[in-house]
UniProtKB/TrEMBL annotation:
Annotated function: Catalyzes the ATP-dependent conversion of 7-carboxy-7-deazaguanine (CDG) to 7-cyano-7-deazaguanine (preQ(0)).
UniProt catalytic activity: 7-carboxy-7-carbaguanine + NH4(+) + 2 ATP = 7-cyano-7-carbaguanine + 2 AMP + 2 diphosphate + 2 H(+)
Pathway: Purine metabolism; 7-cyano-7-deazaguanine biosynthesis
Residues where Zn(2+) binds: 200, 215, 218, 221
Metal-binding in keyword set: yes
Organism, scientific name: Mesorhizobium sanjuanii
Protein family (similarity comment): Belongs to the QueC family.
Note on cofactor: Binds 1 zinc ion per subunit.
The protein's name in its UniProt record: 7-cyano-7-deazaguanine synthase
One of the GO biological process terms: tRNA queuosine(34) biosynthetic process
Pfam families per UniProt: QueC
Cofactors that this protein relies on: Zn(2+)
Gene symbol of the encoding locus: queC
Entry GO MF terms: ATP binding; ligase activity, forming carbon-nitrogen bonds; zinc ion binding
Length: 245
């Protein structure tokens, strides 16, 4: 497969979706760097697993090792300080009056993309990769395709650049995300995502399930578990590893 000779910067949280997107980028670009954000999230265990995941990818996937470059960590504590959400405060998950769950952190993905673009500008990179999906848009409007396209336009106009924001998971549900990981890195990548990544909003690393660690009761655990079961039941469905969105 012919890879893009450019450099991609992957927004890498340490969760299932961003780990899958990192593998997708490593398969599609000659050089890949990663960026993470510490915004005071309650489930900050996701930040703790990031170095482990990066080390394992370098160790277990030699074909990707030489393409995986620097990791950038950005302190965005101010976002947690100004946000009143279930991810930044010790409150129960609930629906807001506008119908969105209070796990939605307003402005989060928009700020992340803005900071990622600033780093990419410095690097001379034009490709940004983010693991958003419209299957999440019922709770997260900044995961919508239109929102990402609008952000890409704003960044290009405001920075006089031609950034391309890639969203490999935009039209994929969790089952299809598992299938993409399987296609990209086989059983080894699927196992690494199960054991190494973290998506649970409760930050639970004590309870191990077939799909990975988590409380098993939060929104993300339910989505991940349901996707895993569906993936296991239709493993033979092919997914194109090179598909670009």
């Amino acid at each position: 497969m012919q890879r893009d000779p450019g450099t991609a910067l992957v927004l890498f949280s340490g969760g299932q979706d961003s780990t899958t997107c990192l593998a997708w980028a490593l398969e599609n670009f000659e050089r890949v760097e990663t960026i993470g954000f510490d915004y005071g999230q309650r489930h900050r265990i996701e930040l703790d697993v990031r170095p482990y995941l990066l080390a394992r990818i370098r160790k277990d996937f030699p074909v990707w090792r030489g393409r995986l470059g620097e990791d950038h960590m950005i302190d965005m504590a101010v976002l947690g300080q100004i946000s009143d959400t279930a991810l930044t405060r010790d409150v129960e998950v609930a629906l807001n009056a506008n119908g969105l769950t209070n796990t939605f952190v307003p402005g989060r993905n928009l700020l992340f993309l803005g900071f990622a673009a600033a780093i990419a500008y410095r690097m001379g990179a034009k490709h940004l990769v983010i693991g958003v999906s419209e299957t999440d848009c019922f709770s997260y409007p900044d995961c919508r395709d239109n929102a990402v396209k609008a952000m890409q336009l704003a960044l290009n106009l405001g920075m006089e650049k031609r950034f391309i924001i890639h969203t490999p998971l935009m039209q994929r549900d969790k089952a299809q995300t598992w299938a993409l990981a399987d296609c990209l890195g086989g059983e080894a990548l699927v196992k690494l995502i199960c054991e190494g990544s973290h998506t649970c909003y409760s930050g639970d690393r004590e309870h191990r399930h077939s799909w990975g660690f988590g409380c098993g009761t939060c929104i993300e655990c339910h989505l991940r578990a349901a996707g895993w079961e569906q993936f296991q039941s239709c493993k033979d469905a092919p997914v194109a590893a090179h598909e670009m969105t």
